[in-house]
Write a structure and sequence with these properties.
- With 70 residues, the chain is mostly helical.
- It has a domain of 28 residues.
């Protein structure tokens, strides 16, 4: 590759890198963060139905070889 071909490849790349870097230093992008309010556990417990079956009544607590089948 001749020196002229190399400069035609490297020159625009260096120019684009310089413009990009200058743009990031002058005005960097700003992200808008959304505050996470979380889950209101008390409200979920208050609104939950009272006639739900227990977890153990629905699923076996342990899943092993010696568990009895229903």
């Amino acid at each position: 590759m001749t020196n002229r071909k190399l400069s035609l490849i490297v020159g625009p790349f260096a120019l684009a890198t310089g413009i990009f870097t200058a743009g990031m230093l002058i005005s960097p992008p700003v992200t808008m963060a959304l505050s996470n309010q979380g889950i209101d556990v008390a409200r979920m417990a208050f609104n939950a139905p009272n006639d739900l079956p227990s977890f153990d009544a629905t699923y076996q607590r342990h899943t092993g070889v010696l568990d009895t089948l229903r």
